[in-house]
């Protein structure tokens, strides 16, 4: 057993929550729970690696449940003693309480949209008859569970709008059940699909739909390896047991299989992959009974997606021989990749594609900022879309017959607004602007470029109140991700307004490993280049300190999932860089991540300890779990995870927190907050989001010695 270690801190009562000198808040007494150590050892390439907390991987065991309870008692006991925690929660609740509405989509004679009156746990699906302003509640997910932890996790209407299929997630799990509704009467049909996972819903007319799932895994449904993804077809009116296997082979498994049907209903499109980058591509002609599935792309070296089909021509978005992507044309007679013809060639900026009203919309990322151009189907540029400002625009989608579409625009200081766009004229008009308690004119958001360790220039957007004094004392969140070709573009967060109004700075660098500059930028942060991502993040912190935005005493590192790995790695490599660390739902055991759920699919970015001794040693060198060193003073740390996270299993966070509490030497608290009845993040109810953010901000400010409000 680990000796019980006590962090001795005297607790004072009745502190005022105003601005106080740094580190003058009374220290809160923390007694870490005892965590049993086993003598478990794994051997990698002739080297023995202890894994004393392996038993915490058993998410169903009573021992693990008792450990979770004990850790939460300590963590929530600590948080309860932060005198302004409730004030922060109330302020978050105040700013969160505004009407939120989505862009409408048209099916049949109705327009459908989501709306939340402010603090509802889940947004409600409403509809209006076209030409009528009378609003009708269509589906209320809040009634699916008492505590709001059951959420919608995917929806699909038939083209005529008469049938509606929707997937439901319980407690944030990636496993979903699918139901079917008749839209005219809002009555559920008998059809029900249980245990679909990583799935879309693709209708084939009104006959039935395609969905994806895995065979039921051995062991825990929440953590056991899922390796063979399969595509099924469900014919309406039949039981799931009769669903037809369309694609999937036990002898030649694919980890990720997805399907869609072209807008004209003529072709089934199948994408198959073994990792998060690169995919095979298949087509099936739905106009011919029992038509074969034809392979279009036979390797997984690049990314490809069929965006549309028109008169025998397929339009494919690809990074084959084009790391920044291009749009090409293909026919079944000339389907070889080297026969594809450019419609919209590659440029220096990363391209994504959408379509609507018979037009193609090319969205480019220029230093993480959106630019949109409108083309016809012959590839002729018609116009550059005039956007409302500098930021992120998305949603340029509509059916071919529609004359208008709706898109969203946002930035770090611009609440997400919806615009209606006339496709013929190119004119935008404001459709909906949320009424938030935030005045953008009082804040500024600017992009800078700083130099990473190897000389690479990295962009970063820094947001704060106008007139900020660069005195090194501003509480600063440095947020990052850096992986899986994910691009971090400017986006408004109502939660972050509370950080900003309290004198805070919010900084987001576009680290290598992301997709902001295409596939080459992504590859520069993968496998044996992964250290570049951590170096970029460290350099961002050093820039903020050098320029006077903050100092190590007022800097917090934050990131989730792959970003949780980022925070865990950086706090272990540079424990002096920041005062506070927030690794959320992180990938923290880099030697075993591929042994859980779909984790093996992340190997394109990470590599695995099994593939070579060189890769093993590289992974072990930065693996947060294995990099913690005894006797080191680490930042005040609040690890966050959830008991139903079956994407990045909570064992990562459990083992990391136990090891951190064992190794850490110093007065900073190192705690873990484990949410119950929640998953990786999607579908988390509003109430739980507010509570977690309140705890996160309160923990950060308290350990920086900053009150709330800070005035």
From TrEMBL:
Q: Which keywords does UniProt give here?
A: Hydrolase, Protease, Serine protease
InterPro entries documented for this protein = AB_hydrolase_fold (IPR029058), Pept_S9_AS (IPR002471), Pept_S9A_N (IPR023302), Peptidase_S9_cat (IPR001375), Peptidase_S9A (IPR002470), Prolyl_oligopep/macrocyclase (IPR051167)
Pfam families noted in UniProt = Peptidase_S9, Peptidase_S9_N
User: What protein name is recorded for this chain?
Assistant: prolyl oligopeptidase
Q: Which PANTHER family match?
A: PROLYL ENDOPEPTIDASE
**Domain Peptidase S9A N-terminal, residue spans:** 33-433
Family to which this protein belongs:
Belongs to the peptidase S9A family.
Enzyme Commission code: 3.4.21.26
The record's top EC class is: hydrolase
For the Peptidase S9 prolyl oligopeptidase catalytic domain, which residue ranges apply? Answer: 490-700
What reaction does this enzyme carry out catalytically? Answer: Hydrolysis of Pro-|-Xaa >> Ala-|-Xaa in oligopeptides
Judging by the UniProt lineage, the source's domain of life is Bacteria
Provenance organism: Mariniradius sediminis
């Amino acid at each position: 057993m680990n000796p019980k270690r006590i962090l001795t801190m005297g607790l004072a009562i009745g502190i005022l929550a105003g601005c106080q000198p740094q580190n003058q808040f009374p220290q809160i007494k923390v007694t870490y729970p005892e965590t049993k150590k086993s003598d478990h050892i794994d051997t990698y390439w002739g080297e023995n690696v202890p894994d004393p907390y392996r038993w915490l991987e058993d998410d169903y065991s009573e021992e693990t449940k008792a450990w979770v309870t004990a850790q939460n008692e300590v963590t929530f006991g600590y948080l309860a003693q932060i005198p302004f925690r409730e004030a922060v929660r109330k302020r978050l609740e105040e700013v969160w309480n505004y009407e939120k509405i989505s862009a409408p989509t048209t099916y049949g004679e109705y327009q459908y949209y989501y709306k939340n009156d402010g603090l509802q746990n889940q947004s409600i699906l409403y509809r209006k008859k076209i030409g009528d302003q009378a609003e009708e509640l269509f589906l209320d997910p809040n009634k699916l569970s008492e505590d709001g932890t059951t959420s919608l996790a995917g929806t699909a209407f038939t083209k005529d709008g008469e049938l509606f299929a929707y997937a439901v997630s319980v407690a944030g799990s990636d496993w979903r059940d699918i139901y079917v509704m008749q839209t005219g009467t809002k009555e559920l049909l008998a059809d029900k699909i249980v245990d679909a996972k990583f799935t879309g819903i693709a209708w084939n007319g009104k006959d039935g739909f395609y969905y994806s799932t895995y065979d039921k895994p051995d062991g825990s449904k929440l953590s056991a390896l899922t390796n063979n993804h399969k595509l099924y077809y469900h014919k309406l009116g039949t039981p799931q047991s009769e669903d037809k296997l369309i694609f999937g082979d036990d002898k030649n498994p694919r980890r990720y299989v997805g399907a869609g049907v072209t807008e004209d209903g003529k072709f089934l499109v199948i994408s198959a992959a073994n990792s998060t980058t690169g995919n095979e591509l298949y087509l099936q002609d739905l106009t011919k009974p029992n038509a074969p599935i034809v392979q279009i792309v036979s390797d997984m070296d690049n990314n490809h997606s069929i965006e549309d089909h028109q008169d025998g021509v397929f339009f494919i978005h690809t990074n084959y021989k084009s790391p920044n992507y291009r749009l090409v044309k293909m026919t079944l007679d000339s389907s070889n990749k080297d026969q594809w013809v450019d419609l919209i060639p590659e440029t220096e900026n990363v391209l994504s594609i959408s379509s609507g009203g018979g037009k193609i919309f090319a969205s480019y990322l220029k230093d993480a900022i959106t630019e949109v151009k409108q083309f016809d189907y012959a590839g002729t540029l018609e116009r550059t879309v005039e956007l409302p400002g500098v930021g992120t625009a998305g949603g340029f989608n509509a059916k071919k017959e529609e004359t208008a579409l709706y898109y969203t625009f946002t930035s770090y200081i611009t609440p997400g607004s919806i615009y209606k766009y006339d496709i013929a004229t190119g004119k935008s008009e404001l459709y909906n602007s949320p009424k938030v308690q935030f005045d953008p004119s009082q804040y500024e958001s600017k992009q800078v470029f700083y130099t990473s360790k190897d000389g690479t220039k990295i962009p970063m957007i820094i947001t704060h109140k106008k007139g900020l004094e660069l005195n090194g004392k501003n509480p600063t969140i440095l947020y990052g991700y850096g992986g899986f070709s994910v691009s971090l573009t400017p986006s408004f967060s109502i939660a972050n307004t509370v950080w900003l109004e309290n004198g805070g700075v919010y900084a987001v660098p576009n680290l290598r490993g992301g997709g902001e500059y295409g596939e080459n930028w992504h590859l520069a942060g993968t496998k044996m280049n992964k250290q570049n991502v951590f170096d970029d993040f460290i350099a961002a912190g050093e820039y903020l300190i050098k320029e006077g935005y903050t100092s190590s005493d007022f800097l917090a590192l934050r990131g989730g999932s792959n970003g949780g790995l980022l925070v865990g790695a950086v706090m272990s490599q540079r424990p002096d860089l920041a005062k506070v660390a927030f690794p959320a739902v992180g990938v923290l055991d880099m030697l075993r991540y591929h042994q859980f759920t779909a984790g093996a699919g992340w190997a394109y970015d990470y590599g695995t300890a099994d593939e070579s001794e060189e890769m093993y040693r590289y992974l072990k060198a930065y693996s947060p779990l294995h990099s913690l060193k005894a006797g080191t003073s680490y930042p005040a740390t609040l690890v966050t995870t959830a008991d139903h996270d079956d994407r990045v299993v909570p064992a990562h966070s459990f083992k990391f927190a136990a090891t951190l509490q064992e190794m850490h030497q110093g007065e900073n608290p190192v705690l873990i907050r484990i949410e119950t009845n929640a998953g990786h993040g999607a579908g988390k109810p509003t109430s739980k989001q507010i509570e977690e953010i309140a705890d996160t901000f309160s923990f950060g400010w308290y350990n920086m010695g900053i009150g709330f409000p800070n005035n």
